[in-house]
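Sequence design from tokenized structure. All designs in this work follow the same two-part layout: the structure record, then the generated sequence. An example of the structure record is given first.
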């Protein structure tokens, strides 16, 4: 009887909420049945499917149309060779569809002449007496991207009677970087094991691989790197190349190309050579042969991603060679096949500089213009390491003759892992909108990476995101972290999109279309990154997490092998104030920016306060624009971050009627964790910094719950996404 009562209660809850339990596996591609007048309108506008000549990719597009339209409208659409009624959806290319070829969809008004090989056109028009919708492209993959766009319009309840959409990606290489190891652990991964089951590949292809490619294609992501940048030499051996080839076969119809990470010392460890010197003829021959071997298995192989001479990884500097020497040697190997080299600019050597933020600039700017055309430098959004907030990387304004590829972190290594709701599109957008002044005003990072500001003609453009995907059923460890995967893909296609518009799309597709749900949840998302900055690293503080696992606060962390792996190195807190002086009286890192930007950052009165302590060591009693002292402002910001999370919890608590019970419960639980940990960040940070400020908290603000010794003693040796570390 007790079990029956529970089942009845569950049924009543589902009936009351109008939602069935969901585990998040469907991501933003749920295609749930709609209702009302809009359903009637859609059924009139989409009544049959008219495909072009079949191909692997067009078959995927047709399957997606049938799946999406069938799910959204609750009916199976017939397939026809010719339009037979109003509401025909015709899709294909001029080469695959005689109907589309006859329509001549070029012209000054905007057409296929503007879309390239990946773009598409979606247009409503009359054809032989029928009202039809055309999804057309120059290549099959563009048709698939257009199909997902068309379905996104329906999912977000947009009118489709008078469509005229022309869309093409501004970025060529839109790539997910997986930090997955061959033992299925994931560095900085918070969503379970790697989805790549290397032991069973190539003989067993998990259906999830297809679902992964489908999700990527829905966003226009066209590349994936399945292995960690801290690469294993085993990864380039024949058995693993065969595994990658099997994945490439799954991904190919979805337009997702395989790239691989390359360990620079692989010729020694895998090839039996005595050196990996990039100027050694035997080494160059080894890499050419390896490239030939890979392309024989994977004809559309994209190229290599390389991390070299950073964090102990081998590289050309081991042989007194430059980054250009190393990158060009690999570029030479893949060039005959059309491949590229993505060379990471995240470097810091064993020789500690005066300021780690300066090292990439110092190493790479002298090499501007010395890289082969098929080399692109992959540069993190900021000069340190994916912090909650950083100014844009100075390299974006300093290398006009070298293609630069923006690297973003989708996984939340420094932002609370999977249990903190932190929507990252505002962080991504902040970087893309940042003005480098490389060629005067409006020289934004977005224009640098899309080639608009190129000083040497057309070149490879790219944007990479460190993936947050794992084996958890919901893919990303939490339901809201799916939004960061989604946002990366949408911004990689079009960096001009706004965080708000992307959030609204994702919420409508993932949870509910109801305005009473969408508006408050979008509001939560848009404020969530700022909340994290406030309770973790306000006013330009950075790198204040605990040692090794990067979990929780550790502003007191010092000592160890390197000063620049510690928090005290970056906060510089003392009796006189707090912050890292990067002006000419300190490390002078501001000089790496263009003069206009450097002048603003170096001026204590003009630097944006969100970067204040990044560039300046500021007295505790310094008055900010609010009129409050720096110390009071820090305490208020820490507290406000906690309050924002409390507000998010309150907002979510009122939305149960719109969400299925399973997802609602997990989000609720995670928000409770976030609130608890936000308070931990606040209290621990205030307790530590107060030992230097020696000032009372502002009136009305509660002191930390525990003393500093309590927080310093906390230890978490088995933090997800990192190797176990002993408590010290």
């Amino acid at each position: 009887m007790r079990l029956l009562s529970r089942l009845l209660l569950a049924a009543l809850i589902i009936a009351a909420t109008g939602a069935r339990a969901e585990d998040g596996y469907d991501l933003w591609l749920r295609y749930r049945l709609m209702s009302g007048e809009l359903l009637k309108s859609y059924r009139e506008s989409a009544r049959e499917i008219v495909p072009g000549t079949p191909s692997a990719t067009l078959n995927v597009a047709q399957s997606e149309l049938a799946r999406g339209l069938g799910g959204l409208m609750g009916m199976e659409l017939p397939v026809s060779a010719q339009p037979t009624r109003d509401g025909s959806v015709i899709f294909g290319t001029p080469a695959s569809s005689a109907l589309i070829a006859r329509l001549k969809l070029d012209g000054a008004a905007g057409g296929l002449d503007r879309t390239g090989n990946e773009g598409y056109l979606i247009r409503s028009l009359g054809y032989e007496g029928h009202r039809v919708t055309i999804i057309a492209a120059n290549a099959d993959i563009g048709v698939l991207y257009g199909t997902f766009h068309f379905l996104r319009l329906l999912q977000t309840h947009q009118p489709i009677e008078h469509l005229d959409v022309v869309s093409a990606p501004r970025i060529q290489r839109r790539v997910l970087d997986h930090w997955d190891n061959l033992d299925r652990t994931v560095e900085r991964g918070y969503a379970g094991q790697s989805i790549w089951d290397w032991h069973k590949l190539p003989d067993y292809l998990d259906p999830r691989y297809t679902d992964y490619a489908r999700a990527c294609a829905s966003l226009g992501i066209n590349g994936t790197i399945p292995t960690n940048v801290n690469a294993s030499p085993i990864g380039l051996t024949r058995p693993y190349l065969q595994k990658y080839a099997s994945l490439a076969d799954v991904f190919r119809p979805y337009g997702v190309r395989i790239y691989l990470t390359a360990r620079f010392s692989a010729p020694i460890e895998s090839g039996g050579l005595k050196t990996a010197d990039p100027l050694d003829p035997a080494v160059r021959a080894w890499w050419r042969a390896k490239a030939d071997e890979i392309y024989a298995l994977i004809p559309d192989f994209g190229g290599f991603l390389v991390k070299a001479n950073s964090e102990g990884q081998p590289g050309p500097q081991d042989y007194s060679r430059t980054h250009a020497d190393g990158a060009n040697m690999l570029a030479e190997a893949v060039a005959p096949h059309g491949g590229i080299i993505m060379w990471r600019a995240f470097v810091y050597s064993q020789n500690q500089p005066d300021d780690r933020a300066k090292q990439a600039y110092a190493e790479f700017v002298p090499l501007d213009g010395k890289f082969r055309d098929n080399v692109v430098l992959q540069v993190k959004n900021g000069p340190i390491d994916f912090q909650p907030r950083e100014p844009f990387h100075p390299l974006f304004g300093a290398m006009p003759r070298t293609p630069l590829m923006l690297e973003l972190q989708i996984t939340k290594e420094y932002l609370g892992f999977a249990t903190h709701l932190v929507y990252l599109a505002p962080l991504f957008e902040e970087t893309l909108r940042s003005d480098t002044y490389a060629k005067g005003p409006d020289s934004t990072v977005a224009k640098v990476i899309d080639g608009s500001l190129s000083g040497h003609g057309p070149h490879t453009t790219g944007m990479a995101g460190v993936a947050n995907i794992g084996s958890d059923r919901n893919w990303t460890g939490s339901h809201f972290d799916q939004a960061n995967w989604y946002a990366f893909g949408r911004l990689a296609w079009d960096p001009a999109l706004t965080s708000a518009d992307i959030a609204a799309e994702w919420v409508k597709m993932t949870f509910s279309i109801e305005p009473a749900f969408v508006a408050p949840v979008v509001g939560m998302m848009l404020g969530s990154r700022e909340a994290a900055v406030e309770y973790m690293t306000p006013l330009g503080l950075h790198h204040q997490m605990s040692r090794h696992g990067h979990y929780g606060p550790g502003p007191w962390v010092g000592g160890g092998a390197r000063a620049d792996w510690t928090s005290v190195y970056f906060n510089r807190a003392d009796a006189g104030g707090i912050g890292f002086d990067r002006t000419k009286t300190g490390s002078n890192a501001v000089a790496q920016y263009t003069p206009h930007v450097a002048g603003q950052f170096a001026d204590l009165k003009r630097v944006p306060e969100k970067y204040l302590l990044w560039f300046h060591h500021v007295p505790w009693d310094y008055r900010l624009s609010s009129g409050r002292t720096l110390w009071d402002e820090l305490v208020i910001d820490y507290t406000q971050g906690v309050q924002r999370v409390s507000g998010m919890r309150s907002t979510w608590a009122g939305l149960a009627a719109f969400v299925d019970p399973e997802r609602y419960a997990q989000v609720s639980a995670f928000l409770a964790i976030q609130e608890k940990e936000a308070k931990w960040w606040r209290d621990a940070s205030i307790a530590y910094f107060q030992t230097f400020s020696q000032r009372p908290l502002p009136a009305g603000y509660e002191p930390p719950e525990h003393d500093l010794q309590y927080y310093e003693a906390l230890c978490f040796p088995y933090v997800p996404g990192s190797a176990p570390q002993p408590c010290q």
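The radius of gyration is 26 Å. We note this feature because it recurs in several other targets discussed in the main text.
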